Amino acid sequence: MFRLFSRFTGWKIISVVCILTLTLSACQAASIPSDSNPTDGAKLSVLQATITPVQSIEPTDPLESPTEVNDVPVNQAQTAIPSGIVDSQPTPRPTLGPDDWQQFPVIPTEISVRAREIYQRGLAKGNDPAHFSKLGDCQNITTYFLAMYDNPELYTLGEQNSELQDTIDYFAGSWSRESKSVKGGFNVASVFNPIFSDREICEKNESPLDCELRLYKPSIVLISMEEWWNGDVPKYETYLRRIVETVIAHGAVPVLATKADNLEGDHDINRAIVNLAYEYELPLWNFWLAVQPIPAHGLQKDGFHLTNGINDFSSSAQLKRGWVQRNLTALQVLDVVRKGLENP
What we know:
Blueprint: H1 2-24, H2 67-70, H3 76-79, H4 113-124, E1 128-136, H5 165-170, H6 208-216, E2 218-224, H7 233-249, E3 253-257, H8 268-280, E4 284-285, H9 287-290, H10 322-342
Parallel strand pairs: 1-2, 2-3, 3-4
């Protein structure tokens, strides 16, 4: 009996370790090559390894994984919609055409009344107007994304972008903060599974998303999820919708981002992202459109990872690099969203 128990327990431990390994190793990056210019190193977005695209990896869905993972109870009280907050359900709107998503601007041109209502009610609940959170996979970790704005030596705005400094100052601290809902290998399902939460900070059975919302009390959440292993786009949309409604329920404004790649082959994921932003009247960051004019659409040879560069936005050469476009346009979007929420 003891041998049977030990063997069963051992397999449970091995299963959980395997799932964690598959999930967290999906988006690993290489260090800067030794021949990099040391004077540019501080501003250089760290080079990513050219690996097999993440979508080709097919680990078990974290929310539909073996019994060992599903046995972890989910705190339903934290995922339920609190009373007194804007209804998270969307208002019916005309359906977009299949290619209409490509016409949405990189940076939103206006902020909806509904988004401002979410923002104001969130402030009444205690959310911090100077806090924004990030939710996503390896293309959102601080090694590459936005963190340099907390260090003036790591970026150059240039004269044409100098007005963005006010927004950089306004969100000081949020840029380089390690979000509890960002991790290499995360997908739209992972952020709901408590097994992937930081056990030292998050509460028992608290999901990464709920943990981040509770700890940081953001007024804006930048949502950028490129990865979906099994190609089931309807399931991707289901989980993304749940993310949107959870963020709204906490009184924060979701900002949805499209992705640069098209590994699924038919742009179905970007189409789903834009449809949800349109349906819920939320700000959209159409990053896909931003990289269309630049070489290889800002992608490395693997068709997933972004090309690297120095965050000097005064340089036309650097603006042809995927990571440089990502960092600049994300800042521009947050600038527009901040001002639109504050000044109806």
